[in-house]
Design a protein that fits this description.
Blueprint (H helix, E strand, L loop, with lengths): L9 E3 L3 E5 L4 E3 L2 E3 L7 E7 L2 E6 L13 E3 L9 E3 L8 E9 L3 E5 L3 E6 L5 H20 L17
Parallel strand pairs: 2-11
Antiparallel strand pairs: 1-4, 3-8, 5-6, 5-9, 7-8, 9-10, 9-11
């Protein structure tokens, strides 16, 4: 609905973001092209359900996550920061532009946020094989090569 309005209006957000429980993360959302007046909110989708995640001014009955806030909140930048992350915060976050207060005009493609447990260094683990291989190659290439013919001839004892 309303997709034909404002054909040059775009919402750009990164496809994937990784973070760690207990830390914070910034979900980037950039608006470009001419768009109407109207608020921008963030929705979170997980397990086939979607709900309001963040809005600057929640209406009656709306629940906005208190750990989230706009970073700049300029006309073009609607990025939010989420603090005190938990693994349950994993999901897909949509930056949604409204036309006026109640009509959804367009949304970004969604940023898939993966929040890892603090004590599971997944990123390091995935790099381990490469590191090990690299060290192996290094040690291999530094082995002193025995060149044939340079050893002094053994004196044969009679």
């Amino acid at each position: 609905g309303g997709g034909g309005d404002y054909p040059k209006f775009r919402i750009t957000q990164p496809a994937q973001i990784s973070a760690t429980a207990g830390g914070s993360v910034i979900l980037t959302c950039t608006l470009s092209g001419d768009g109407p007046n109207g608020k921008v909110i963030w929705k979170k989708g997980s397990g086939g359900e979607e709900r309001l995640f963040y809005t600057r001014s929640p209406g009656r009955g709306e629940q906005s996550d208190s750990r989230a806030s706009f970073v700049k909140d300029s006309d073009r930048d609607k990025s939010i920061q989420i603090t005190d992350l938990a693994t349950e915060d994993s999901g897909t976050y949509y930056c949604v532009k409204f036309k006026g207060d109640d009509k959804e005009l367009r949304r970004g493609n969604g940023s898939r946020l993966s929040v890892a447990e603090k004590n599971k260094p997944q990123i390091l683990l995935s790099n381990l094989p490469k590191v090990r291989l690299h060290l192996h190659l290094l040690s291999y290439s530094w082995k002193p090569r025995r060149v044939r013919g340079t050893n002094p001839p053994r004196k044969e004892t009679l």
